[in-house]
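thread from #wetlab-drylab

HS: before we spend reagent money on co-crystallization trials with NAP, can we at least see a predicted complex? here's what I'd submit
DV: go for it
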Amino acid sequence: MTDSGHLGKLAVVTGATKGIGRAIAEKFAAGGFDLAFCARTAADVQAMEADLCRRFPGQRFLGRAADLSSCADVDGFARAVVEQGRAADVLVNNAGVFIPCPVADPAGRESFDLMMRTNVSSAYWLTQGLLPPMRAARRGHIFNLCSIASVTSYGGGYGVSKFALLGYSKNLREELKKDGIRVTAVLPGATLTPSWNGVNLPADRFVRASDVADAVWACYALSPQAVVEELLVRPQLGDIEI
Ligand code: NAP
């Protein structure tokens, strides 16, 4: 972690180099947080770490290349964070992939398995890795990036993974209620990020990634005695057909 001697609040964001994760990471950095973050592409991670250090010189930033579809990589990232000797104040389980995958077609089995590991298991593994110090500190806020595909049929196997992530969030919320740790499931509708590259629609048809980040920040800013359990944000003109 790049060190400038300061020890502030810590936010951990997965899949942070692009899209919604990037917007949330930037929002918390601008709010004075130190950050630990990851994505698969090492060059993007390094560039983001350098950019944050330049823009927020009083804060600490730890970027790691990690493929969160791999339990070993998730455990390695969790260890690197825990070794900083501090509890995460905010954990954003954002990393996720969308692969077209009709559930009735056996040709989609590999994609289905990859989405279950990246979109669901990574949050389950990483949260377990980071929880002991959070529980000891009796504070923290966990955000899981679900989707409108968590509540309506959308995207086949992707939708199954997002339903599962919402189910995970609900169970985690119950388990952590008495530990002072808040859990929020974030359910964005179509949000303009690189994952929509190649789709030819006007930008104003989408939610902005910064809208999701602003809404996440607003949930975090509530008093510790209140939790937004589900945050659903849709484009004003409604869902986009895929
Ligand atoms: P995105 O633009 O494709 O960005 C994904 C980010 O996650 C990138 O930084 C990517 O970097 C990283 N990533 C992808 N796979 C990873 C892996 N296996 N391990 C570690 N990092 C990984 O995605 P997005 O649209 O912002 O979506 C972010 C989250 O919001 C996802 O969970 C998505 O399902 C959810 N969501 C998105 C929308 C939408 O319309 N955009 C709507 C609802 C929910 P690398 O490629 O370098 O790894």
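DV: The CA atoms of residues 97 and 115 lie 6 Å apart.
HS: ok that's useful, forwarding to the group
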